[in-house]
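Researcher: Can you fold this with nicotinamide-adenine-dinucleotide in place?
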Amino acid sequence: MVEIDPSLSIFAETLGKAPGRGRLQGRKILVVGGGQRDQPPDVEHSIGNGRAMSVLFAREGAQVVVLDRNQHSAEDTVKHIKSEGNVAYPYVFDVYAEAKETKKCLEEVKKMMGGLDGMVVVVGTSRRIPMAETSMEAWDEDFAINTRSHFMFCKHGIEVMDPGASIVLISSASAIRALDNNPVYEASKAALLALSRATARAGEDKAIRCNAICMGYVETPMGRSSGRKVKNRAATVAFGRQATGWETGYTALFLISHESAYTNGTTQIMDGGIWAGIATKPRDPRVLSAL
Ligand SMILES: NC(=O)c1ccc[n+]([C@@H]2O[C@H](COP(=O)([O-])OP(=O)(O)OC[C@H]3O[C@@H](n4cnc5c(N)ncnc54)[C@H](O)[C@@H]3O)[C@@H](O)[C@H]2O)c1
């Protein structure tokens, strides 16, 4: 077992403690899936990807609409943002059950902020079941949540969003590696990479960009719940720790900001170097809460 000190790779940004630097002044951004799943009271709480990016975007000067099917979770994210003196609004919407209302939803969101020039689609679900146990119904339902909803938000996003807007789709390292014996998750996340390119193509006339992010294991409520089912997760974490939701947030922050104005149709991998073959030795799977 190779030991590595995880604290060497932990900074204020890793923990969401860095101040805002005005990188999104005046921007109007929708985060689809900006809540996070509930956590048992007996564990130390971690921040989800959608909540972390909502908080960061607002801290950087944007107005943010936090969309989630879970009202109290969307409201908790908004409370967090307001506690820092920033601006956000909750919006309750189920991307699966209310898919046909997506355009109306986007129009209302645009009205709430007086514009819409950024959107991250974060929602995703994973049952972590192998192929033999995956039914046709499970395949269709998970594809609808993980891919169809992103298609609906991209298609109507191009119609409704302001020229020069940026869209970010949250995929997963499972899209590019057979990580977890989880075929419907892997296939639906891989489809998002092609969707981000197709969206970039479709949005070109309005200079609307689209990029995707593939994260490795992230220390979110979902990541923890998945990790419990993976025997050798320890062998695949880089730097001796999982990523934090804040680190996903900072990657999305770059892609949503005008700093990336010429970055389009790309896939950003954020896995600590696993895909590049850097973190190949077994590592101690320490999580941040244990540091
Ligand atoms: N945590 C990881 O290790 C990891 C790694 C790679 C990619 N991802 C991806 O990141 C995204 C977010 O993951 P997280 O770990 O922060 O998860 P999370 O479960 O904490 O957050 C997901 C949010 O989406 C909302 N949501 C789910 N279905 C919805 C629906 N039908 N309509 C509206 N809202 C809905 C949930 O209420 C929740 O607030 C997912 O797409 C996931 O696949 C996570």
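Model: Folded with nicotinamide-adenine-dinucleotide in place. The chain has seven helices and seven strands.
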